[in-house]
Structure formats: C-alpha cells, structure tokens
Amino acid sequence: MSAWIDIRYAARLLLKKPLFTLTTTAIVTVGLALTLYTFTLMQQLVFKPLTLGQDTPLIAIAGEFKAAHGVRQRVDPYHLNRIQSHSTLLQSMSLYQSAVRTVGQQGNEASSHKVHLTYVQWDIFEVAGVQPLLGRSFSPSDQQNESQSVVVLSYDIWQRIFAGNEDIIGQVVQVEAIPVQVIGVMPPGFAFPTQAQVWQIMTQTRLEPASPSNSGGLQAVARLRPGVTLAQFQHELATLLQRQLQALPQEFAWRADVAGGYLQAVPFKLSVDVLYQHYSVLVAMMLVVLLILLLTCINVGNLLLARVNEQIRDVAIRVALGVPQRRLILQMLWESTLICCVGGILAPGLAHWGMMLTNQALNEIFAMSGARPFWWTFSLSLDSVWMLLGAVLLMILITGFIPAWRALQGDINGILRDGTRGALSQRAGRVNQALVMSEIALSCVVLVIAVMLLGSSVAAQQADYGVQTEQRLTASVRLAWGSYRWNGGEPQARKKRNDFYYGLKDKLEQLPNVRSVAYFSSLPGTGGGTSHFEIQGQAAAVFSDNPMWNFEVVSRGAWHTVGMQLLAGRDFNLTDLAIDSRELRGSGSPVIINAAMARELFPQGGAVGQRIRTLDGEGWHSEWRTIVGVVSDSIHGPTLDSTSTPYTGYGLMDLRSWWMNIVVHYSGDEAQAMAALQQAIIDLDADATVHQIQSYQSLIKQPLLLIESLNQVFVAGGLVALFLAASGIYAMSANSIAMRSQEIATRRALGVPDKHVVGLFIKQALVQLAVGLVAGVLVALWLSAQLANAMVVDSHSYILALLGIPGLIVMLVLLATLLPVSRQLKHAPAEALRQD
Predict the structure, then answer these.
(1) Are strands 472-478 and 219-224 parallel, antiparallel or unpaired?
(2) 794-812 burial by CB neighbour count: b if 16+ within 10 A, else e?
(3) 691: which strand partners?
(4) In the predicted model, is pLDDT for residue 152 greater than 90?
C-alpha cells in the first residue's frame, strides 16, 4: 500500500511541473531510441551469428582483407580442400565463388538479364540447412559431370525472368549464353551466401586441383561442431595451414608471410567486404551512442537533482520526523522510474521509424547493384526488447541514485537552520563538478566525431573528380562469356569482343542526340582499388615503399567524352592493337598516366617513353608498360574511400578481357538517351546486357550512400549531444551556483567586488573545462584513429572538429556560468541572506 502511495506522490510531483516532465521524458526517449536503434543495427549487421535456423553458427574461411583494394582475397582451393579433410572441429564445409553473370531463356529473341550468380560445391545447401522449394538440390554426380552443368534458381529470378513457370524444372536456360539445366528453385528470400540469385555447380576439376596454383581462388562457408568456439577453430586452422605452407614449392612461399594468415576464419557476416571495411566505423558509432546514453543519464539525473535541491528542506523535515531513509530513496526512485518507463514505452516507436528510414535508404543504395546481403533488413527483435529493458533499468538506477544520494548526504541540521540556499556540502560540490566535467568530456567526444564525419561526407560530395558529369549517362555493359570467349587474348577473340564495343559506340554516335561515347573499366569517381608500381630503374628497396596507383583500361578516344584532356604524348591508336595480348609480358603494352604522376614522379619532364609495371606483395608483377601519353588528373574511387590514390594509369581496353562501363555524352532528354542505349544493345546482340543505367552524378554518389547513412546516425547523435550538453551544463552550473547563493551574498556583504565573485566561478569553470576537454579530445582522437582505418577523414573537417567543438563547449560553459552568476548579483546581499 505504501508503494502505491509513493507512486501517486511521485506522479503528482511530475504533473505539477509539466514542462520539466515533458523535457526529461523527451530526453530519455531520444537517448533510449538512439541506443535501441544502434543496438539493433549492430546486432543484425554483425554481432548476432548467422545460423539460418540451425543450432550452430556459420563461419567464413577466406583470404586476408586488403584495405587497398577494399576486398577480401580469394584463396587457392588446394588449401581449402586440405583444411576440409583434416579438420576435426568442422561439422560441414562448402566452397563457392560469387560473380556477376547473365541469365536468359533460350531462343534468338530472348534477352539476357544481369544476375548475381554463385558457383558452388554440391553440398552448399546442406551446409546452409535449406532445401529447394521446387525440384532438387545438387548432388555429387552433378559436380563430376564435366559436360553438363546444372543450376538452381532463386525464387525472385524464377518469378521475374521465368514468370513463375511451374514446368521450369528440367528446362534448359542460358547462363552466359551457355545452355544449362534447371534442377531446382529455392524458397522466397533465400540468397545465401550473401546476395545469390542463381547457383551453378562447379566441376570437380576446379574444386579439387591436384597441386597449388595462382588461379581459381574461392571462399568457403562452414559450420562448427556443437560446443566448438571460433577461437578454437582459428587455432586449429593456423596449425593445419602451417603444415601445408611448409611443404609448398618456392613460388608459393609468400603465402607463409601473409599478415593474419593466408587463410582466416571469421564470423560469416564479416565476410561481406563493405561491412568488414567499415567495421571500425560501426564500432565507433556504437561507442558514441553508448556515450550519448550515459550523457542522457547524467543530464536527467541532474534535472532530478535540481528538483531535489528545490525540495531539500521538505526532505530534511521528513528525515527529522523519522521517515526511514529507504522510504525516501524509493520515493525519489519512483519519480525517475516513471520518467524512464514512459521514455522506454515511446522509444521503440522512434527506433522503428529510424529502421524504416534505414531500410528505405538500403533499398536506394542497392537498387542498381542488387548486392544487398539478404540479412540487411532491420526490425526490432526479442534481443532488442531485452536490451531496452536493461537500458531502462540502468537509467533508472543512475538517474535515481544521483538525486537520492544528494538528498541524504546533506547536513540535515544545517538545512533546517539555514534553509535551501547554501546547504551544498563539500562532497556534494565535488559531485556537481564531476558531473559537469563528465558532460563536457562526453559531449566533446560525440560532437567532434559527428563534425569529422559530416564534414568528410560533404567534402566527398563536393570533390572534384576531374571530369564533367552533366549530360552524361553511364551503364555497365556485359558480354556473355559463351559468345565472347577470351581464349587467352588471341586475335580473333579480341576482334569479336572489340567489334561489339566499338560497333555499339559507332551506332550510338550516329544518333542526333548523342555527342560521343567512351568505355572505362571504372569511371572516375567510382571503382578504386590501389596497387603498388615501380618505374624501370627506380624500384624501392622495400616493396611497400613503392608508390601506388589506380590502374584502369579505356577505349580509344575516350578522354573528351568525360571532359578530360590529353596533355602530352599521344592517345591510344590502331597501331597499339598489333600487340598480341598473349605476349604482353615480353613486348609490353602502352599506358597513359595522369598529370599528377608525370609532375611528381618525373619532375624533370620526360615521362613519355618511360616504362612502368604493377606489383603486388606476392612476387607477381605485370608486363612492363611504356608510357605514351599524359592526361589531366582524375580520381578513381570515392574520396572517402582508402582505395583511392592521386595516381592513375590507363591501359588500352582492346587488349584486355575486362567487362566495361559505358559513358554516353548526350544532348536533350535523359530518358531518350537511356532508351536509345538499351535498344542499341538489343539490336547488336540479345545475349549482351546493359544494367545500372543512371546519370553520371548518380553513379558518383552511389559509393558514398552507405557511409553517408552511417554518418547520419553520428549527426543525429551529435545534435542530441549538443542539446544535452547545452541544457545539462547550464542546468548543473545554475543549480550549483544557486546552492551557493548565501556564500555569494556573504562575500559581497564583506566588501568583495562583484568582478572578483564572477572571477571565482569563472576560474572554477575553467578548471572543469580543462579536465573535461582534455579527456574528451583524447578519446575523440582515439576514435578518429579507428575511423581512419576504414575511410579517409577530410583534413579540414578534422581540424574544424578538434578546434571548433572545444571552442563551442568553452562558450557554452562560460555562458552557463555567467548567466546564473549575473542573476545572483542582481539581488542585494541582505535579501539573499534573509532567504530560508
């Protein structure tokens, strides 16, 4: 019964101050919602193991992650097979390789479609624990059949391309213009390993090579035996791999020196390259949100503390009358409990809204590529509910403890004798100072990181990539491998491929609304992936000391289409086609470099005629390439991405087997240009596909969308932190100064000048600022160093954050000190001394 009385008492107190109640409830709601949203995001992106409904989690076995390329390396299946044979901790394991391919129905009039296809070992669905909705799964005999390949379709592809044909099982379809037989259709939503739409069996020869090789790189997915931890398997993997590497021929000896191990076992979700690359950003985001939650707790606790200070005389009277301290503490906790519980009820709605926006953003980000991992759809789960309950309980304890401790630590006799003013004990004063310093430090961390990321995003969006993007249409063009086999680059194979590309270019340029057409392996502003290179005669003693470049291939006469200029030497021409690509290593091939390379690496001029080649850390190098020209600077890869470099080299598309991206400089209507491109492709070859058709501006923005979405969380957190810092620091300072009103009045009555009184509080504020800012800046520097591992932080944003945010906080603290002190100085000393 007494508990119900206490609840009603707390409710009445809150209803008497509606503005206070709404403010504190809003602060709690936002803090809990941001925490709930981030926890759910991290849980479903990373922390919760992928099980697909089974008892044991899935893990990935793959190569090292190369930050310069932004991808995890595929590995020799020779090693994977031996790990599979000798491991005692694995329950099951299957090999695969993901790729982008074309799929279509048979017939001359049927068009092909771009899909995400995964080449797999026969037992991939057994490892996943999911079987086809229609037809059957792969079998060992499918893998051994070298003459007839079979595929399983995703539910989406079955519906979208094959119109949900119930008789699809057993039919022959085209994959890369090669006939294959459909044996199954998977259930809706199944896209394992990440975004697969079609699964094709690999042959035994490719899966189980007799000896080590540098080709056929694969990845593996596995399940551990029940009770086995990932750490245990990682130890076993390192042991097994060491034995294998010791027996390798000398040409593969580099595999023993790979940092982290040539083969690495990680939770399966971290095998997604973009997730692993930005893992430190996600961790930093989680830490920042936890700091905001702590900041929220301190702020709400301080607001409740201010209410206790207003009621301290009432508390003292009740203690003097014999009310048990336990009862008083519970009464104060009920006030905190009511606020936190209401915030906890409202927070899921706000978090759900944030998840809806995130899902919409992901739909936009992956609309063109279709490369969204199938588990990247966010919603509140049971884990989220438990986390919310824990956060609410923690918040109740922290926000309730601060005012309860303050109320019961005061000098009861002094309060009854002197009243509220001036009853602040030395210990309580130290607590107030500690709270202010904590607010300063926490808000500094959050705001510094938010400004860094926001500024870096804005700088990336406004970056000059060295090209003109207006009235430019871009798309990816894929030729079916079955119709355009490379055959090692022999002349007829190259001619057939180049006839299509240049035939499409000529066909488009004859249209009245098309000015020019060009091909790039990756257009400036996209792509990325850096490699070391050396200039002939200038090799660095240490491999990593060699400079790095982005190497791309382009069509002849490509520069003017994107607004670039040839500055020196010559462009690629027909005489370059005389080079047989099968003999490039001996004869070399032409390369054109950008102005930055020519200016910085050949300061005396004379870049044209020099020879250069690409290197990697595994002893491999390309053929020597002869520099024939210099073009204006452009940047490949987004400026936020560490896979970009100022140096770029361009090879001739005609000599390479890479799939190409087309850029069309048009006039007039964009929709007409898109339709013309699509029709021209169909007219030339129905087996060829064109996809990801978009404006050049959209193409450049595409790689930035994901990191921008993460940055929005930081920005939201920064705005919350700014509000909490401004309100919290002011409230604590005002409360602390109000509690010392009698001390201020006494000093003034004794003749101390007002400016000395102001100076006393300013000095105290500066000490708090120094401690709080030093702690906050140090933590922010550590977090920014973690972020720099995943992205390029704009230097101007870095300086602005480290100088501007502390300056802003200094202004906030000084204002929070001067305003309440000024109000105290407006009262006559005698008036303040008479207050009870």
Answers:
(1) unpaired
(2) beebbebbbeebbebbeeb
(3) 476
(4) yes
What pLDDT score was predicted for residue 663?
A: 96
% helix, strand, coil for the chain, step of 5: 55, 15, 30
| Interval 370-384: pLDDT, tens | 888 999 889 988 888
Instruction: Give the CA dihedral 540, 546, 547, 551, nearest 10 degrees.
Output: 120
Q: At 633, list the tokens.
A: 């600077």
What's the pLDDT at 327? 59
Q: Is residue 57 reached through a cis peptide bond, with omega within 30 degrees of 0 on the bond before it?
A: no
- Angle (deg, nearest 10), helices 279-310 and 382-409: 40
**Which residue reads 């007829």 in tokens?**
492
Stated as kind and residue range, the H or E segment containing 61 is: strand 58-62
Burial code (b: 16+ CB inside 10 Å, e: under 16) for 302-339 equals: bbbbbbbbeebbebbebbeeeeeeeebbbbbbbbbbbb
Q: Parse the chain into domains and list their residue ranges.
A: 1-57+276-420, 76-262, 443-461+710-836, 480-687
CA distances from 536 to 540, 548, 614, 624, 652 (A): 11, 15, 11, 8, 20
Mean local confidence (pLDDT), 699-711: 77
> What was the pLDDT predicted at 216?
65
pLDDT for the residue numbered 328: 60
Instruction: State the Cα–Cα distance between residues 407 and 334, nearest whole angstrom.
Output: 15
* Per-residue pLDDT, 585: 46
Lowest mean pLDDT among 256-270, 590-604, 669-683, 739-753: 739-753
What counts of helices (H) and strands (E) characterise the chain? 25, 23
Residue 241's pLDDT is: 87
Of 53, 143, 131, the residue nearest 96 (C-alpha): 143
- pLDDT at residue 743 greater than cutoff 90: no
> What whole-number distance in Å separates Cα of residue 726 and Cα of residue 327?
34
**788 phi/psi in degrees, rounded to 5:** -65, -20
CA 624 to chain centre: 37
Residue 827 CA to residue 835 CA, distance in Å, equals: 11
Give the H/E segment covering residue 755.
Answer: helix 754-788
Can you tell me whether residue 683 is helix, strand or coil? Answer: helix
| Core vs surface per residue 376-415: b (16+ CB within 10 A) or e | bebeeeeebeebbeebbeebbbbbbbbbbbbbeebeeeeb
DSSP 3-state of 27 = helix
Residue 416: is its pLDDT beyond 50?
Answer: no
Model confidence pLDDT, tens digit, residues 476-502: 998 888 888 888 778 888 889 999 999
Of 583, 582, 598, 595, the residue nearest 490 (C-alpha) = 582
Mean pLDDT, the chain, rounded, equals: 83
Specify the pTM.
0.82
Rounded distance between C-alpha atoms, residue 615 and residue 624, angstroms:
11
